[in-house]
Write a sequence for this structure.
């Protein structure tokens, strides 16, 4: 039995997603220039390098947003609680 054919709309969406992935992965890989800055969470780190800042500035909005959406979806897919990093205020 032959697999079902995709509609033209789905084919276009798949092609766009594949193109975005091809463009996004290299953008994210350039963030490796920031690894020294990220090496010690919570520790006072030196300012990020110019290469790191350039890599961050070079990430497209689409790539950044899709990456954040993926990151935010992982906890529920793994059955763990999502981390909330906002500072909470406590009343005394």
């Amino acid at each position: 039995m032959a697999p079902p054919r995709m509609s033209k709309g789905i084919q276009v969406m798949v092609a766009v997603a594949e193109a975005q992935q091809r463009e996004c992965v290299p953008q994210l890989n350039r963030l490796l220039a920031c690894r020294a800055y990220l090496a010690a969470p919570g520790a006072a780190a030196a300012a990020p390098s110019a290469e790191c800042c350039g890599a961050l500035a070079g990430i497209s909005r689409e790539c950044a947003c899709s990456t954040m959406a993926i990151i935010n979806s992982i906890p529920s897919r793994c059955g763990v609680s999502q981390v909330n990093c906002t500072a909470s205020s406590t009343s005394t």
About this structure: The mean pLDDT is 76. The radius of gyration is 19 Å.
